[in-house]
Write a structure and sequence with these properties.
This protein is mainly alpha-helical and about 120 residues long. It has a domain of about 60 residues: Cytochrome c-like domain (Cytochrome Bc1 Complex, Chain D, domain 2, Orthogonal Bundle), CATH 1.10.760. About 60% of the residues lie in helices and about 0% in strands. Helix 2 packs across helix 5 and helix 4 crosses helix 5.
């Protein structure tokens, strides 16, 4: 029984010494660096959504920018109204986007306005 008690006291002493050493090490690190702590705050750049103006931009932003980045949309090729209608319908039918028929038409109008066929001169 005395051996068990001695072992417990020995383990407690080792634990206390380890804690004291860790505290001293942390204290010396912070005093060595002065009052400056390493990174406390990180500020990431804020890039605004630079979507081209067009009719029904609000409907597009509300529904499409949930899944797609502004950059992804603006780098798409120019498509006809029919192709944009199919693309928007695919988002609803296949990917489960919750977009009403009215909003789908507004989104298509916006996409055609910004990424529709270019006029030939």
């Amino acid at each position: 029984m005395k051996c068990r008690a001695l072992l417990i006291v020995l383990l407690a002493a080792i634990a206390l010494e380890t804690i004291a050493a860790a505290q001293q090490s942390a204290s010396s690190l912070s005093s060595a660096k002065g009052s400056k702590n390493p990174v406390q705050e990180i500020t990431l750049p804020n890039y605004p959504l630079d979507m081209p103006p067009g009719p029904n931009l609000a409907a597009f932003q509300q529904h499409c920018l949930l899944c797609h980045s502004a950059r992804y949309v603006t780098i798409q090729p120019s498509f006809s109204r029919t192709v944009w209608e199919k693309e928007v319908k695919k988002m609803v039918d296949i990917f489960g986007a919750h977009i009403t028929a009215e909003d789908q038409q507004q989104i298509v109008e916006y996409l055609v306005a910004i990424k529709g066929p270019t006029e030939s001169k």
